[in-house]
Amino acid sequence: MRKLIFLALTGIAMCLNQTKAQDNSNKIYDFTSLEKVPDYPGGIKKFYEFLGREIKYPEVAKKNSTQGKVFASFVVEKNGALTDIQITKGLTKETDDEALRVLNKSPRWNPGLLNGKPVRVKYNININFSMK
Question: pTM above 0.70?
Answer without folding.
Answer: yes
